[in-house]
Amino acid sequence: MSSRNHAPHGRTPRASSLGRRSPRAALAARFLVAILLAAFAPCQAGTPEVIAGHVARRDAAGHLLPWMDWSGALALEMQYYRGAPTDHGYPRFVTETFLLADWTPDPARRDTIPATQSSLGILSYLAWYDYTGRKDAGFLATARAMGDYLLQEALTPDSGTYPRFPRSTGTRGQFPLAPDTGSQSDRPFEIEPDKGGLVGHALLQLAGATGEPRYARAALHIAQLLSAHQQPGDAQHSPWPFRVDYRSGEGRGPVSGNMSFILRLYDGLLAQGHREFAAPRQRLWDWVERWQIPDAARGGALFAQFFEDHDAPGNRTAWAPLNLARYLLDGREAVDRNWERDAGALLTFVRENFTHRESGVRVCHEQDEDHDAWGGVNSTYGAVLARYARATRSPALADEAREVLNFVLYAIDGQGRPRDLPAHSQPGGWQEDAHTDVIHNMIDALRTWPEWAGRE
User: Is residue 387 situated within a structural domain?
Assistant: First the structure.
């Protein structure tokens, strides 16, 4: 994303050894060694350690503790977002990607990322609504507002090769987005097919929660477009290019690393009786199983490209393999008979290529071209690691997952205002990294480890 640091890629990918030993033992051993070697970041005597404005709390061994209980901190954030101003009937954090701490749009940024921001926001608000007992319909209304924004304001025109398809990028202040509104590293008329999978999956979940069929109809339309343009894929190409000119269908970028949400979209529609997606779903899974997962042990070139503001063809990301690992953990044997081995290989790939230490905690950064632990990817790492730790009964992995998510929690201030990056001096910033791609990850971890809701 264009405001983020584009650090050079100087890392050499290492092949995973999980195929030669027990995946549980191999991954646990790697993580346990790293935990034992992790150094507690020293502070000068008498100077308190501060993380994102909070004095850091640690146990006797130096492990980071949360600054307040998880449930309380998340409730503060959700309450803060209830106070967001509205624009054209939508909460401002739905229509704007860059916000300052007082809800003011960042005057230096007019670009937006509607598909990622709002689809993940739908998942987050539905997760919070469910986690809190479905008692407050206001959270469901916010999820509905995000779905309505995507369908009413953020689709391509009803023409061309990808008609009425979700926009990956846009320009703030346009209702609806203009036909040539592409921004960041999208060209004016480009969309990103994988973002359609994200939106389609989120809309299916929204349809189930609200009972409103219009969301399901839109998800079906997205899946029909995706299946119509799906290719077999091979060792150098994913089944869709990363970017496509929605008018002509001309592609740009041979690899799109994020395939798990298109699988989820196909799965959801198959569950509703749409058997026409059985063959496209099988072809997509065949590519993931034959080419993409094994590629994690060969350098991970097939996990390149997810973020909207980058277009280097070889820019690998952590976000895509982590979400594929979560898909395998959700489906287990019903999806992949080797789910434990494959999820372990994906986590090992991420750990060896996209993690570093901050404040004594092993955290996860986004991609080869950005080595910052932004809230979206870092919370994704913690949540998926927590899921894998529970599935493989690994206390060491669970401890590491809990600590990295404690670090994520420090980004929320005492008023409930989150920061997109804990190192930033003020709350606000990219809304998917501050909020919409964080909440659902925290809830995922809490559903897996309910005892983490408290402070200690």
Answer: yes
Q: Which of 80, 196, 218, 198 is nearest to 148 (CA)?
A: 218
Pick from 100, 126, 261, 109: nearest CA to 171: 109
What are the φ/ψ torsions at residue 113 (nearest 5 degrees)? -130, 70
Tokens of 39: 């150094």
For residue 438, give both structure tokens: 């964080």
For residue 173, give the nearest of 98, 82, 80, 83 by alpha carbon: 98
* Residue in 385, 373, 381, 371 with CA at minimum distance from that of residue 319: 381
Q: What is the pTM of this model?
A: 0.91
In this structure, is residue 321 part of a structural domain? Answer: no
Residues 291 and 206 in one domain: yes
For the chain, the straight-line distance linking the first and the last C-alpha, in angstroms and rounded, comes to 35
Question: Mind listing the pLDDT tens digit for each residue in 239-257?
Answer: 999 999 999 999 999 999 9
* Domain with 299 in it: 110-316
* Residues 99-111: tens digit of each pLDDT: 999 999 999 999 9
* Residues sharing a CB contact under 8 Å with residue 434, sequence separation 6 or more, in sequence order: 375, 411, 418, 419, 420, 427, 428
Among residues 441, 420, 397, 423, the alpha carbon closest in space to that of 34 is found at 397
